[in-house]
Amino acid sequence: xxxxxxxxxxxxxxxxxxxxxxxxxxxxxxxxxxxxxxxxxxxxxxxxxxxxxxxxxxxxxxxxxxxxxxxxxxxxxxxxxxxxxxxxxxxxxxxxxxxxxxxxxxxxxxxxxxxxxx
Length: 118
Description:
Helices cover 71% and strands 7% of the residues. The protein is mostly helical.
């Protein structure tokens, strides 16, 4: 699987999480168990836009987006193990799992997928 395809998939996942967080999160819970607020939904939306931009721009930028965003989500997952919120973003509970999965997939995207020749 290429970096661009992974960016497309993860971009669509984050766009879905953003939409669910903004419009379908009764009591501040996405799908009834992932804590959310408007700030987190906006972060998910920005993540989706950045990943989709990487998809449409090319392999080199797809790798760069995966690297930066993967490391950010790894840091958020690490913070989630020690704190339930960070800068107003809910990071504890199931968000730690979401952030950890995103980090693993995006770091694999960065380091584990082949780069095309430029």
